[in-house]
Design a protein that fits this description.
- This protein is α/β, with parallel strands linked by helices.
- It folds into 4 domains: 12-53 and 360-480, no CATH class; 62-86 and 505-591, Luciferase, Domain 3 (Luciferase, domain 3), CATH 2.30.38; 96-122 and 138-281, Rossmann fold (3-Layer(aba) Sandwich), CATH 3.40.50; 597-728, GMP Synthetase, Chain A, domain 3, CATH 3.30.300.
- The strands form 5 sheets. An 8-stranded mixed β-sheet has the order 4-3-13-12-14-15-16-17, sandwiched between helices. Strands 9-8-7-5-6-10-11-20 form an 8-stranded mixed β-sheet, sandwiched between helices. Strands 1, 2, 18, 19, 21, 22 and 23 form a 7-stranded antiparallel β-sheet that branches.
- A hairpin with a 7-residue loop joins β1 (62-65) and β2.
- α5 (143-160) packs across α6 (176-186).
- The radius of gyration is 26 Å and the shape is globular.
């Protein structure tokens, strides 16, 4: 990977996991390790194999159901006979849920943040400077204290002069104040517009102007970005800034003089001195207009109601292992993304503690963590966390890299333990987590788990497909089940969710209890609900989590949202799936990714990309197919560490990574590896690209080439690299 900073893709979490965090894992194990290996590797497996034979009976997780709307194959969760709408009686809006949960858990700790002690800049060998941060422990506030702050902020907004008929926007990295500001707005029925901190200028201007935002809430870093576009923003009157060390003595640019700029604490103080009665919303009120980063064009604003949020929250509470005040959640993904906002809503409802961090400071070796300072996970010791697949892939790769560098007993113990646990997981639950599993934890895996604090018991994964290898790695090395979520902004993340005891890979579970999931035949693509052995078709979601549509875009709303004769709202996702006999959904394709080649073969770009991503040389890949050609090509961002290691072994000389990527023998090696991976994945010959272009620079949300969830933006990539793609067909 490249060394440039910014975004999850080259955040230290993705780039530097696998340095100091793993060194302690592979120390000498001593005599007890050898004895333990003998006992576990020979005696215990023999005993367990004799006692526990065969696999557990397959559990039914979803049932077919008759529903309204377009004909198809629909499934509901086995936990419910009727869809759930609220987590408990009376919690029909997020404002009500927030107040009730805060009162119920008033004395329990709720939101925690780390105090910044100091910062410094270090200079790398190439002359670039990197910021290093020194943090202290987490400082906590209770549910009762947070409720008071949100109530004060709500009153302060009114006293500041915010027009209650207009919208407020939050434009900031994830932090406790982001959550407090959101809940404060809800108490006055103010619709909140969420904007990714990594959004480009054009998209930022579009989202703020389209929604006519009058109050913008941001951090000091984003305040600086606003200066460049302030002349293009026509509705903003107030700007509220979260305090940090950079806000002190901050000079306000002349271009912002037309705005009233106030600190977050001043707004709280204003509300505390002059409280205003709450003006609470209804379940059908628009809580959030969430702008998706989207894979094409300008972002679309999805209108999310209070009812949508509480419905997804209620549904997830039914399928996750019991959550409560003893759990600690690590919050670090963008709150402007539906996945994180849904997760934090669940934690609020269940009374969990939430500690805030960032992808840049997550582990002890994250590149913004000063040497000697603990990362967020080490200090917080979370029991629950969310992750996108890119993060879990890097955790896996970092550990395996360190394992590969060690030729001693530690490597052998890891390999034996991993194989035994893998065999147990794929056979017997008891074998995976029973006596044998406990012994392997003590000898091998306990040390690995300290990377994420050592207490993780559940991981929520979403945003993109998770590879089976990474899922198994987390199951085994972190000792935690993964709940794979499938959902969209348009369904407030609520579509399907894998059960905690489901150890299968490649699936996203049964429908959440708040919705139905229906497959509708797509004849053009060859996916039919009558297909055997499993029904297939476009995934359509109906129920309480389906949102109200796109802001000021009725044409697009009418295209993908439908209301049936019973009044149920359905969203047509454009994804293609199949239902397994136990009622679990598997995503197998995407309608927009289907291209017909010159000789009539259909190629699914997303399916092929997912298969080829498992190639060790690949950090990211985009397949491209021209309908006037009989083969496809690919743009590949290679894994820098893996490629440079191969080049060194092959004796290839180069000045920099860019030059290395341009060498024909390097492209040939990567292409041959892709071909092997493709054949292993049983891809057809026409699905494997015979020509590729290696690109040295990573694709990041900041570059606009991938979304915040790291899905590739196909149209933007095609436009940026049109010349490279053209040459591949010459």
């Amino acid at each position: 990977m490249g060394d440039s900073e910014g975004g999850w893709a080259h955040s230290p979490l993705l780039k530097n996991l696998g340095t100091g965090d793993y060194l302690s894992v592979w120390k000498s194990y001593g005599a007890y390790g050898i004895v333990g290996a003998i006992i576990i590797g020979i005696l215990v497996p023999m005993f367990l194999s004799a006692v526990f034979m065969g696999k557990k009976r397959e559990k039914q997780r979803g049932f077919p159901v008759q529903v309204g709307g377009e004909a198809g194959y629909a499934v509901r969760n086995t936990r419910v006979t009727e869809l759930v709408e609220v987590p408990w009686k009376g919690a029909t809006t997020m404002a009500a849920l927030f107040e009730q949960s805060c009162k119920k858990n008033s004395q329990n700790r709720f939101l925690g943040s780390r105090k910044l002690i100091g910062k410094e800049f270090v200079t790398a060998s190439d002359g670039r400077k990197f910021e290093k941060l020194h943090f202290g422990d987490y400082e906590w506030q209770t549910y009762g204290e947070i409720f008071d702050r949100a109530r004060n902020f709500a009153s302060g907004l009114v006293r500041l002069g915010h027009n209650l008929d207009s919208r407020a926007a939050i434009f900031s990295e994830t932090r406790a104040e982001w959550f407090i500001a959101l809940q404060g707005c809800f108490r006055q029925s103010i619709t909140v517009v969420t904007v990714y901190a990594s959004l480009g200028e054009d998209a930022l201007i579009h989202s703020l102007n389209e929604t006519q935002v009058s109050t913008l809430i941001c951090d000091s870093k984003q305040l600086k970005k606003l200066a460049a576009v302030s002349s293009s923003l026509d509705s903003i009157e107030n700007v509220i800034v979260f305090e940090d060390d950079e806000t002190e003595n901050e000079t306000i640019p002349e271009s912002m003089s037309k705005w009233t700029i106030t600190s977050f604490s001043e707004v709280e103080k204003l509300g505390r001195k002059s409280p205003v009665d709450a003006s609470l919303p209804s379940k059908n009120s628009i809580a959030v207009v969430m702008y998706t980063s989207g894979s094409t064009g300008l972002p679309k604003g999805v209108m999310i109601t209070h009812g949508n949020i509480v419905a997804t929250t209620a549904a997830v509470m039914k399928v996750i292992p019991i959550l409560g005040r003893n759990d600690v959640y690590l919050a670090y993904l963008p709150l402007a993304h539906v996945f994180e906002l849904a997760a934090e809503s669940v934690m609020l409802a269940t009374g969990c503690a939430m500690g805030y961090g960032s992808a840049a400071t997550l582990t002890d070796t994250s590149n913004k963590i000063k040497k000697g300072t603990k990362g967020d996970a080490s200090v917080l010791k979370p029991t629950v966390m969310t992750a996108v697949p890119a993060i879990l892939d890097r955790i896996r790769d970092g550990v395996l890299k360190k394992v590969g560098e060690n030729e001693g007993l530690g490597k052998h113990l890891f390999n034996i333990g991993y194989k035994r646990r893998l065999a147990a997981i794929e056979g017997s639950w008891l074998g995976a987590w029973g006596l044998e599993g406990l012994l392997w934890d003590i000898i091998v895996f306990k040390r690995i788990r300290t990377i994420l604090g050592g207490k993780i018991r559940f991981v929520l994964c979403g945003g993109a497909p998770l590879s089976g290898d990474s899922q198994r790695f987390i199951n085994i090395c972190m000792g935690a089940p993964i709940g794979q979520a499938y959902g969209l902004t348009e369904t407030f993340a609520g579509a399907s969710f894998s059960d905690w005891d489901d150890l299968t890979v490649g699936r996203v579970g049964p429908p959440l209890p708040c919705c139905y999931v229906k497959l509708v035949s797509w004849e053009e693509g060859g996916y039919m609900t009558t297909d055997k052995p499993m029904p297939r078709g476009e995934i359509v979601v109906g129920g309480f989590s389906v949102t109200a549509g796109y802001f000021k875009n009725q044409e697009k709303t009418n295209e993908v949202y439908k209301v049936d004769d019973k009044g149920m709202r359905w969203f047509y996702t454009g994804d293609v799936g199949q239902f397994h006999p136990d009622g679990c959904l598997e995503i197998i394709d995407r309608k927009k990714d289907i291209v017909k080649l010159q000789h009539g073969e259909y190629i699914s770009l997303g399916k092929v990309e997912a298969a080829l991503t498992s190639c060790s040389y690949v950090d990211n890949i985009m397949l491209y197919a021209d309908s006037f050609q009989n083969y496809c090509v690919a743009l590949v961002v290679p894994s820098r560490q893996v490629l440079e290691k191969w080049a060194q072994q092959a004796g290839i000389n180069y000045k920099d990574f860019s030059e290395l990527c341009d060498k024909a023998e390097i492209a040939s090696e990567v292409q041959q590896s892709l071909s092997k991976v493709g054949k292993t994945a049983k891809l057809d010959k026409f699905e494997i690209p015979p020509k590729i272009k290696l690109l040295p620079e990573p694709w990041t949300p900041e570059s606009g080439l991938v979304t915040a969830a790291f899905k590739i933006k196909r149209e933007q990539l095609k436009a940026k690299f049109k010349d490279e793609l053209k040459k591949l067909y010459e």
